[in-house]
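[agent] plan:
  1. take the single chain provided in the ticket
  2. run structure prediction with default settings
  3. attach structure tokens to the ticket
  4. add a short note for the reviewer (M.T.)
[agent] executing step 1
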Amino acid sequence: MPETKYDLPATPVPQGETGTPLTRRESREIVTPYAFEVCPNLLGVPTAHPLRRAIAMAIDGIIISGLAKASLLLILPVMTYLIWFRLQAKKFNHVIVLLLVTAFLSASATWMPELIVKEETQRKVGETELSADQAMVLATSALKIQAESCKLDCMEKELEKVAKMLRRAGVDKVAATEMLDGLVQGSDFPPAQWSTYREALLKDLPEAAPVVQAEAKPAQAAQAPLPWYLPDENTHSVVAWVKGIFADLGIGVGWAVFYFTATIAWCHGQTMGKKLMRIKVIQLDGKELNLFGAFSRQGGYGAGIATGMLGFLQILWDPNRQAIQDKVASTVVIRLGKAKRPLTH
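[agent] step 2 finished; step 3 output follows
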């Protein structure tokens, strides 16, 4: 008898007697196609572009930062957003709870907390220090260059923008070359033209950064150990870098979990950032996430950080643009307001 690649007998699946679908519990006891099915109504729906998702996440990050710092300027809009959708769903018990929480927070919150740190935050890229704004420019350009819709003129425009930023930051040619090579790696930029084009972009940069002699400092007393979220100055791991960003923004994990869970479960898969960017989270079976599903999806963010951000970056090459949190919760982020596209040419 012929055997499959898993050395199982290639016998047909026996048919049931009544044709009644299996229950959820029964479907866990055997291999079924149900967990991998995609709702037919979802087929052909455009997925959200990575840049649009990144902007939505940045907006949500600012909102969570304000929540963590007890800013009424952001607490009131978020609570109003949740209450409005709960009223539409006629969940009046949820509305009462949200009103009580809002009243409690309003008693101790301020309108304008110190959201902006005076001392500019520095981020290390390789051995080069970039400000948070410059690092954001670099990340945004990387997303655009890797996008399928970004053709040669689009890539050249983004590379020129990055080169100007590196010139202002005083980056030397060696470090700039490594950064630009990393940006175009895996893109459609013609390899034969790249070396010449890169040299033209970086011709004004110094060959090496000037060496500054460090001043001798008096011996200092032993300092207390840093908190868990602040990496040592000699630590350059991606995880430590992300933790540093969280600490700088003042993002409380509890607020982040509450915000993402409540808005995605109660507001039709749309955080406030996603609402502004006209994208939404939906399950592959076409249903919206409930509270448990939205909460479990947040575990994917931790997994994304633990994988050195690769879990988030996989939206650049995944067929359905699923990040690791989407894989965890069997969801996809779709673009609203655009017509469906055919599955074939």
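[agent] step 4 note for reviewer: The beta strands are 122-125, 128-131, 279-283, 331-335.
[agent] ticket updated
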